[in-house]
Amino acid sequence: MKNNALAAANLLERIGQLTRSDEQIGGLYPAQWAALRYFARANRFSRTPMALTHYLGSTRGTVSQTIIALERKGLVTRTPSERDKRSVDVELTTTGKNTLLNDPILHLAENIASATKEQAKTTRKLLEKILLQLVEENSGNAFGQCKTCLHFGKNVGATDKDRYFCGLLQIELSEEDSENICVEQVA
User: Fold this and answer.
1) 153 shares a domain with 182
2) What is the per-residue pLDDT across 118-176, written as a single tens digit (0 to 9) for each?
């Protein structure tokens, strides 16, 4: 059993290495690709340098330099946060969104779909379970989808059937917010 688990861990590591080597072909470093992906998937409350730091398990300095590089390339913009004047919000530009259309991870996704066929959902669930175990062991944030959070509310005090609400932040959520990942997510 342990031999299979170790073999699987080695395979995941090798897949990661190959994917990161493809990333360098696109003119961006792996950390820059990871940041672009994060900002594309994060909800509006989680598009901050600090949230990205937690998501990547990186240092503030590294994340700061990554965001500066992405901004210089015209892939993101930084604006002062309306919620916290000490922070900034990061948004993808149109160029940043278009860059993600050529994201090397899409090739990996195609390989996963091809290899797993109808088992892709099961594979995803298994990987999510492993990720959550690692996050718990490292006292990190889960960064799950907003709609799967303990604090997520649907139809809260509303006549509109598509109204969502975050009980933690005490704020209305959009449909897009509910689909994206959140730094505050509690499974």
Assistant:
1) yes
2) 888 888 888 888 887 887 777 667 777 888 888 888 766 555 555 788 888 888 888 88
DSSP label at residue 42: B
Dist CA 70 CA 83 (whole Å): 23
| Burial (CB count <10 Å: 0-12, 13-18, 19+), residue 20 | middle
Owner of token pair 């696109």: 26
Q: Looking at the chain, which runs of residues are DSSP E strands?
A: 76-80, 88-92, 152-154, 164-166, 171-173
- Domain hosting residue 157, numbered range: 144-187
Q: What pLDDT, in 10s, does the model give residues 13-66?
A: 898 888 888 777 778 999 999 999 999 999 988 999 999 999 998 999 999 999
176 in the same domain as 114:
no
Q: Please check whether residues 99 and 62 belong to one and the same domain.
A: yes
CB of 46 closer than 8 Å to CB of 11: no
Spatial separation of the C-alpha atoms in residues 182 and 51, rounded to whole Å: 9
Higher pLDDT, 180 or 93: 93
For residue 103, what are its two tokens? 């994201």
C-alpha triplet 13, 14, 15: angle, nearest 5°: 90
